[in-house]
């Protein structure tokens, strides 16, 4: 009886060890998948962040170009207005000169 009990206990222990090993293996596989998914997600997030940064830089560049263009247009317009004013002033002087003589 004792031998049979010891043998049974040994078999139980072996079965438990085998089951624990299988569970550990399954947990390790799950952890590996989770790590791969986390790595893939991190890479995807980094890519998204990279794209967002690139877009932000492009938009900033566009805004700077647009702002510069507006400043240039504004300056050109102001210069043209100034030239018109000078021409008008010269015209007025010419008219005054004609009227005086």
Fold and architecture overview:
The chain has 1 helix and no strands. It is mostly helical and 101 residues long. The radius of gyration is 43 Å and the shape is rod-shaped.
Largest sheet: none
Helical amount: over 70%
Question: What is the average of the pLDDT values?
Answer: 77
Secondary-structure content class: mainly alpha
Say how many strands there are.
0
Number of domains: 1
* Beta content: under 5%
Question: How would you spell out the order of helices and strands?
Answer: H
The radius of gyration is 43 Å
Q: What oligomeric state is this?
A: single chain
Q: Note the overall shape.
A: rod-shaped
Helical stretch tally: 1
Low-confidence stretches are none
- Terminal CA distance reads 146 Å
Task: Give me some keywords for this one.
101 residues; mainly alpha; rod-shaped; 1 helix
Summary?
The protein is mostly helical and 101 residues long. 98% of the residues lie in helices and 0% in strands.
What are the SSEs and their pairings?
Blueprint: H1 2-100
């Amino acid at each position: 009886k004792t031998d049979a009990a010891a043998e049974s206990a040994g078999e139980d222990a072996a079965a438990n060890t085998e089951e624990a090993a299988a569970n550990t293996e399954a947990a390790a596989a799950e952890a590996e998948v989770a790590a791969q998914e986390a790595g893939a997600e991190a890479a995807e997030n980094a890519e998204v962040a990279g794209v967002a940064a690139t877009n932000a830089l492009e938009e900033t560049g566009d805004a700077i170009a647009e702002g510069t263009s507006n400043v240039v247009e504004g300056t050109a317009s102001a210069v043209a207005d100034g030239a018109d004013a000078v021409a008008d002033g010269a015209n007025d002087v010419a008219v005054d000169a004609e009227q005086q003589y």
